[in-house]
């Protein structure tokens, strides 16, 4: 692996979990094809929220902030579709059927806009609930932050989603998390407790003389409310549906029904969390311990002979689980490139009409326990 002068938190965290997975991701440049859309959704939402927070800091009203966010999401979608390796195939139908690349991009943009609007309403930007912190003369929104790694010539390069001060005068580092799946309160809490990225950022900011009181995750469920089904008699079904009360009530009204007759359904839907705010205070010890963890990674990286993790839970959550199993069992895992994985810098494999099929025996082996 070619040595670089900076690493990201994501890279350091993956190296700690499994050196082999780190090798595949950063030395080989492998990414899951299914991962691409979710990463792009998170990027679109981040860009939209960046535009919103900057505009709000300038005193723009909420409706203007929303329009600016929509414009940013549209511009990034157009830029994606205009890339050479995408534009050539944008209207082509995949061999397995389904929507074209253009239709997928439009659906993703719509999802990003819907999610961004929901977050704007949640943050109550029209109030004094949060005030963006100014760092080095600039608003701390999508701000680059460097942290030197002790005992190494490298540094960690990270990005602060948002640093803001609440009404009580407490400053928090806030990280936007667009989740693939809805999580429980316990999962949100554990995710923040296990996160040493934000304590590390707090350490770097403390070196600048900025006192960080706490850290927070703004957990965003990365889906849009579904339309509930209509029964044969014209009423709206009360079966389980991944939607919210506003969408459900509008569907009821569209049939001439009264939403007040569906209060039990409202209780069920209101119990579903679309956005979750999790925060906690942070200590000086936590900041320093995060730096120790980073130093350990910086000294070991890159590993000449990357080892595999011994923890089964880590494997079950790993994007490279299929590739690793095939390789470990002596099969040709390279057959997965173009079907389940692509190589960074060769994104045309995502849209190429001809893809290398997976050998059935290889797939069966990968699915064995």
Describe the model.
With 369 residues, the protein is an alpha+beta fold. Helix content is 46%, strand content 16%. Strands 1, 3, 6, 7, 8, 9 and 10 form a seven-stranded mixed β-sheet that branches. The protein has a two-stranded antiparallel ribbon with strand order 2-11. Helix 3 packs across helix 6, helix 4 packs antiparallel against helix 6 and helix 8 packs across helix 11. The longest helix has 25 residues. The radius of gyration is 23 Å and the shape is globular. The two termini are 31 Å apart.
Write the layout of secondary structure elements.
Layout: E1 6-7, H1 9-17, H2 19-27, E2 30-32, H3 33-57, H4 62-82, H5 84-87, H6 101-123, E3 130-132, E4 134-135, E5 138-139, E6 141-148, E7 155-166, E8 171-179, H7 185-194, H8 197-207, E9 214-221, H9 245-254, H10 263-270, E10 275-281, H11 284-300, H12 312-316, H13 321-328, E11 341-343, H14 360-367
Parallel strand pairs: 1-7, 8-9
Antiparallel strand pairs: 2-11, 3-7, 4-5, 6-7, 7-8, 9-10
Helix pairs in contact: 1-2, 3-4, 3-6, 4-6, 8-11, 13-14
């Amino acid at each position: 692996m070619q040595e670089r002068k900076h690493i990201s938190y994501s890279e350091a965290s993956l190296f700690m979990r499994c050196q082999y997975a780190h090798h595949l991701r950063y030395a080989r440049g492998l990414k899951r094809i299914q991962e691409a859309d979710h990463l792009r959704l998170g990027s679109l939402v981040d860009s939209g929220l960046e535009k919103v927070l900057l505009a709000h800091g300038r005193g723009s009203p909420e409706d203007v902030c929303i329009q600016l966010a929509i414009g940013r999401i549209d511009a990034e979608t157009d830029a994606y579709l205009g890339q050479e390796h995408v534009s050539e195939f944008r209207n082509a139908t995949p061999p397995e059927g389904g929507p074209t690349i253009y239709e997928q991009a439009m659906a993703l943009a719509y999802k990003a806009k819907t999610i961004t609007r929901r977050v704007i309403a949640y943050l109550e930007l029209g109030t004094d609930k949060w005030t963006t912190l100014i760092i080095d003369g600039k608003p701390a929104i999508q701000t680059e932050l460097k942290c030197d790694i002790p005992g190494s010539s490298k540094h960690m390069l990270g990005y602060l989603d948002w640093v803001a001060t609440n009404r009580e005068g407490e400053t928090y580092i806030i990280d936007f998390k667009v989740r693939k799946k809805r999580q429980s309160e316990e999962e949100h809490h554990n995710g923040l407790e296990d996160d040493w990225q934000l304590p590390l950022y707090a350490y770097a900011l403390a070196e600048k003389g900025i006192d960080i009181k706490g850290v927070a995750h703004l957990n965003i469920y990365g889906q849009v409310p579904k339309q509930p089904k209509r029964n044969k008699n014209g009423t709206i079904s009360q079966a389980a549906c991944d939607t919210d009360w506003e969408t459900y009530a509008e569907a009821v009204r569209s049939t001439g029904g009264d939403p007040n007759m569906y209060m039990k359904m409202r209780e069920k839907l209101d119990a579903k969390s679309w956005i979750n705010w999790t925060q906690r205070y942070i200590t000086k010890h936590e900041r320093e311990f995060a730096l120790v963890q980073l130093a350990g990674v910086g000294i070991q990286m890159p590993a000449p002979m990357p080892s595999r993790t011994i923890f089964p839970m880590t494997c079950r959550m790993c994007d490279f689980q299929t590739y690793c199993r095939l390789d470990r069992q002596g099969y040709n895992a390279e057959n997965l490139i173009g079907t389940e994985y692509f190589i960074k810098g060769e994104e045309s494999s995502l849209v190429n009409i001809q893809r290398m099929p997976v050998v059935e025996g290889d797939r069966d082996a990968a699915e064995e326990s």
